[in-house]
Hints:
Layout: H1 6-19, H2 34-53, H3 57-69, H4 76-85, H5 103-119, H6 123-132, H7 134-148
Amino acid sequence: MRGYANTYFHEVGHCMDDVSDLNDYTSNDMDYDFIETLREDYENYVSKVQEEQGLTTEQAKEWIGAWLEEEADMKNGISDLLKGLSNSEVKGKWSHADEYYNDTSIEREAFAHFFEAGMSYKPQKMIYILEVFPKSYKMFNEMLEDELS
């Protein structure tokens, strides 16, 4: 189970993203470089796995895909984001259809997944997000502070 009220909090995250910026979604606001930060975190995580496991890039992506299957429900957001960021090279149990992903959809999904994880009664979700997306999560919090204050 992905957690109590998982979908509810995910959708509330989308709503917060939408209404927090008068021009568009906060996650797509050009004042932030959210998509580049998400990409940087993804690339850093692949490099970290390569180094720690002694793998090639392709092997590291396969390793990450297998890792996503372990406690898959607690990694649902990470699975979705990594599939989009990797152009479907990294796949776990949870994701949107391939054609869904583009720069703006990945940013919006990241905002909603991070919000949802912050509302979860299971701290493991946040632990995993911070492991894979530390800089992106920090930027998410900055966006919330800037836009909602």
